[in-house]
Each structure stands twice: as structure tokens, then as C-alpha cells.
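stage 2 :: seqdesign
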């Protein structure tokens, strides 16, 4: 459960992709989510995506610990420049290349004495995932339900996917392959949630039949969305990998 929530919330480190069923244009627009923890009444936050042809803006109402020394609630994935911008202030951001993230996470694992070199166990799709045949219209899009069963049936994750929204996750996909999958101890079939063939508009987690967590699309725009969020303001102070490492050292003292 913990691993799945981390994956769902960040998204910047966990994406696999499948083969395209048919050619369809890249989705460009804004998709908003409400994330609610049913076990903590009132614990509701937002997760907003803006997609363009080569960039993804991700913003949350909650600040997240991405790694030691780096907390953010806004990330810009620049596939065209092969880097990430982690915004830490109104006019401040860490600019980190994908290759630097891989190297940094490997260093953190070594310092903490964790061996993440072993390959992950293959997920058993035929046994643990089934398509229910249920359909639902969400935000004007037709969706189909898939159910993931875990922990001997005590936990079920219902995912409603639409084939009408297709996204190329770019650097996020690459980072998952090289780094993200090895940071999570649980088997998390993220490709069920994020792939190039479909997009999730509703995810519900049930524990022993009781709804415990929900992530639901609250709005979708393909016009009049704030595309400026996929650009960096000219007066932004840019920090780099060396600044991040110094911040990590200061926090360890």
C-alpha cells in the first residue's frame, strides 16, 4: 500500500510503457486529480498535470520528500532538454539531469547500505490483474475497470482506464527503468496505471473490502489551460546537483 501511494503521488519516478495499440496524437491539456485518504477524514490533496508535446508539469498541494535534501510540490519534466526542474520556491528550482538522478540515488543507496542492484521480481499479470468488463464515463471519457489483487486478496486496487488519453512519459519512463523500480520493495505494476495506451481517471484502493484511498480526476481541459507552467520564469534562480548535495550534507549534520 505504501509503495503504491508513493508511486501514485510522485509519478515523476515511476512509469513503464507498453506497445501502442494504434496511433493517436499525444494528449495536450490539463488533468486535475483529488487524492483522498479515507482512513484520515479530511486528508485530501490535489495533483495537477499539464501535458504538452515534450513537457509535463506536475503540481501538488502537498510538498513531497523526493529524496534527502529535496522537498517540492512542483516538478517540470523537460523531455526536450533531458532534465527535471524541481521547484522549491516561487523563483527557485533545482535543475537535475536524468543521469545525475540515477547516479545520486545509487550513491544514497550505498551510503545507507542498501543493495538495489538485484533485478526486481517479475509481476504475475495473469494471476493478479483482471479486466472486469465494467465501464464508466468519467469527465466525458469512457473508461474500463481493471482490478489488481494483492496480499492474498486482502487488498484490491480498482483502476479505471480510458484509451482516449495517451501520454508519452519520456524521462519519467526512463527514470523508472533505471532507478525508480529499485527504490520500492513492493511489487508495483505501475504500467497498469501509466502507459502509452491509456490513462487512469479513477483509482480506488480497498483493504478487506473497505475503501481506504481514492485518486479521482476532478477536471480535464484541452483548451484554456495554463501552458506557462511548462516554462521556466526568466528570473528563476537555478540550483544544480552540487547545491543539492551540499543541502543533503547539511541536513545529515
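stage 2 :: out
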Amino acid at each position: 500500500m505504501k509503495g503504491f501511494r508513493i508511486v501514485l503521488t510522485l509519478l515523476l519516478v515511476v512509469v513503464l510503457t507498453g506497445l501502442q495499440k494504434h496511433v493517436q496524437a499525444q494528449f495536450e491539456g490539463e488533468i486535475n486529480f483529488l487524492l483522498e485518504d479515507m482512513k484520515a477524514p479530511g486528508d485530501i490533496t490535489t495533483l495537477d498535470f499539464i501535458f504538452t508535446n515534450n513537457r509535463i508539469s506536475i503540481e501538488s498541494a502537498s510538498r513531497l520528500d523526493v529524496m534527502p535534501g529535496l522537498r517540492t510540490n512542483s516538478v517540470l519534466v523537460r523531455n526536450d532538454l533531458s532534465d527535471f526542474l524541481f521547484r522549491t520556491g516561487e523563483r527557485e528550482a533545482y535543475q537535475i539531469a536524468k543521469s545525475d538522478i540515477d547516479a545520486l540515488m545509487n550513491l544514497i543507496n550505498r551510503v545507507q547500505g542498501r543493495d538495489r542492484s538485484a533485478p526486481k521480481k517479475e509481476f504475475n499479470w495473469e494471476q493478479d490483474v483482471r479486466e472486469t468488463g465494467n465501464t464508466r464515463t468519467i469527465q466525458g471519457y469512457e473508461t474500463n475497470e481493471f482490478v489488481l489483487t494483492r496480499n492474498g486478496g486482502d487488498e484490491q486496487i480498482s483502476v479505471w482506464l480510458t484509451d482516449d488519453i495517451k501520454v508519452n512519459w519520456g524521462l519519467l519512463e526512463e527514470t523508472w527503468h533505471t532507478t525508480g523500480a529499485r527504490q520500492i520493495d513492493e511489487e508495483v505494476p505501475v504500467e497498469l496505471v501509466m502507459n502509452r495506451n491509456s490513462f487512469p481517471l479513477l483509482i480506488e484502493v480497498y483493504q478487506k473490502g473497505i475503501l481506504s484511498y481514492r485518486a479521482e480526476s476532478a477536471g480535464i481541459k484541452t483548451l484554456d489551460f495554463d501552458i506557462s507552467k511548462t516554462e521556466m520564469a526568466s528570473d528563476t534562480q537555478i540550483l544544480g546537483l552540487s547545491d543539492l548535495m551540499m543541502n543533503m550534507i547539511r541536513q545529515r549534520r
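stage 3 :: structure notes
- The chain has five helices and twelve strands.
- Helices lie at 2-10, 98-111, 125-128, 171-178, 241-252.
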